[in-house]
Amino acid sequence: MKTLIKNGTVVNATGTAAADVLVDGGTIAAVLAPGSTLLGFNVEQNVDTVIDANGKYVIPGGIDAHTHMQLPFGGTEASDTFETGTRAAAHGGTTSIIDFAVQTYGQRLEDGLAAWHEKASGNCAIDYGFHQIVGDVTTDSLEALRRLPDEGVTSFKMFMAYPGVFYSDDAQILKAMQVSRDTGMLTMMHAENGPAIDVLAQQLVEQGNTDPYYHGIARAWEMEEEATHRAIMLAKLTGAPLYVVHVSAKQAVEQLAWARDKGQNVFGETCPQYLYLSLEDQLGASSEKWGRFEGAKWVCSTPLRSGEDGHQASMWQALRTNDLQMVSTDHCPFCMKDQKELGVSDFRKIPNGIGGIEHRMDLMYQGVVTGEITLERWVELTSTTPARMFGLYGTKGVIQPGADADIVVYDPNGHTSIGVEKTHHMNMDYSAYEGYEIDGHVDTVLSRGKVVVDGNQYLGAKGDGKFLKRGLSQYLI
Ligand code: DUC
Ligand code: ZN
Ligand code: ZN
Question: How many angstroms separate the alpha carbon of residue 385 from the centre of ligand 3?
Answer without folding.
Answer: 18
